[in-house]
Amino acid sequence: MVALTDGFAPGMRVFTPTLSNESALFSQQLRDAPERARGVEFCGIQFPGIDTFDYLALHPEARQTTCFMGAGVRAAMAQGRASLLALDYQGMARVLQAQPGMDVAMAQLSAPDAGGWCAPGLSCDFLPLVWRQARRRVAHINPLLPRLASSFRVHVSELDAQVVSEQPLLDFHDPQAGDVERRVGAHVANLVRDGDTLQFGIGSVPLALAGALTGHRGLRFHGGLVSPALQTLWEAGAMDRDARITTGVVLGDQRFRDFVAQLPHLWLAPVTETHRLATLAAIPRLKAINSAVEVDLFGQVNAERANGALQAGAGGLPAFAQGALASDGGRLMVCLPSTARKGSVSRIVPSLGTGAVCTLPRYLADTVVTEHGAAEIKDLALDQRAHALIAIAAPEHRDALAQAWAGMRSAL
């Protein structure tokens, strides 16, 4: 069998397939020949908690560039082998398009159709941005990948090397929603109207939200990824059956993959389409629903750093925040449990401290939702905003927050 890693050499930059298109064959071939990773810089948007392969563990001279923190990246940064870019998805798209072409663009693609065209499988977010400029284009053609409609496709004649092999696809299972998440979802559902266009990510809150929205009708979707929450809404009759569902990534298990393969209007597109501000602003009543680590009394959002350590990156949150706020009738909803560490720590905080980063500034604040309610703070003055946020904090932390705000207020 031809190795997908043939031709790898020190100093090369290799774009890797990630998320639901992570290639089990590519990973195994690298494990079998780790020397191929010596001096190679792997570039890909690996998402913590979803992507499973550690390129940096292959060889002590392997390198990686990414915009999401992970355990392997954290350790390799200390060794000078990893670079973490402080970019959101829009910034990452700009960098990938502006840089010289990758030495190798690695893809996992569907089997070709009668005309020789392969589909991008389950992920079309960043691959189209690097594919044409790459010096060498290599594909794992996996017949198990579904053929989904997309703005990007690859003809077999474009490939410098290919391996056809059925390999298991990456399954992802959302964490189960508990009582807190269901209460958060119920508050969000009260702010969603029939006919709205939704954007939401993965996790237990979207699952709970989907359960709370099953009585809605005519809902639409435009986002960076779709998960089984979409299937819940579709099967309940909540979705507009004639509207296009635009996404960059399909993420779930085999049951969900079988479901999306039958969707009549699913459309995969790169981040330059799914996250483009002009596109988002033109969608009426776009409701962007995303999670965070903490929110302070000014309305600033930290979605990346917990306990002083970076846990992820900004991802698509800044784009969807700005897009939803520019949309006619759009709204940005930041959702989070009111506490952490078994209730001992409030996630509504007086102000973002040295252990946090500001993912969204206060002027992008709109609505913050916890299990205790929704604070609609977009047009509120400072004092009103702080009091509205204190009101949705956990009851046992409200007095301390009020006292902290009084001290901060006197120093303004």
Distance between the first and last residues' Cα: 68 Å
Return the CATH topology of the largest domain: Glutaconate Coenzyme A-transferase
CATH superfamily of the largest domain: Acetyl-CoA hydrolase/transferase C-terminal domain
* Strand adjacency order, main sheet: 15-13-11-10-16-21-25-26
| Biggest sheet details | 8 strands, mixed
Could you report the average pLDDT, rounded to the nearest whole number? 95
What does this entry look like structurally?
The structure is a single chain. By secondary structure, the chain is an alpha/beta fold. It has 2 domains: 13-164, Glutaconate Coenzyme A-transferase, CATH 3.40.1080.10; 179-410, 3-Layer(aba) Sandwich (Glutaconate Coenzyme A-transferase). It has helices at residues 24-32, 71-78, 89-98, 127-131, 179-189, 204-212, 228-235, 254-260, 271-274, 277-281, 317-326, 382-391, 395-410, and strands at 13-15, 41-43, 63-66, 82-84, 104-109, 117-118, 136-141, 154-155, 161-164, 197-200, 220-222, 225-226, 245-247, 249-250, 266-268, 286-291, 294-296, 301-302, 305-306, 309-310, 331-335, 339-340, 345-346, 348-349, 367-370, 373-376. The strands form 7 sheets. Strands 15-13-11-10-16-21-25-26 form an 8-stranded mixed beta sheet, with helices on both faces. Strands 4-3-2-1-5-7-9 form a 7-stranded parallel beta sheet. Strands 18-17-24 form a 3-stranded mixed beta sheet, with helices on one face. α5 (179-189) packs across α6 (204-212), α6 (204-212) runs parallel beside α7 (228-235) and α12 (382-391) runs antiparallel to α13. The longest helix is centred in the last third of the chain and has 16 residues, at 395-410. The radius of gyration is 22 Å and the shape is globular.
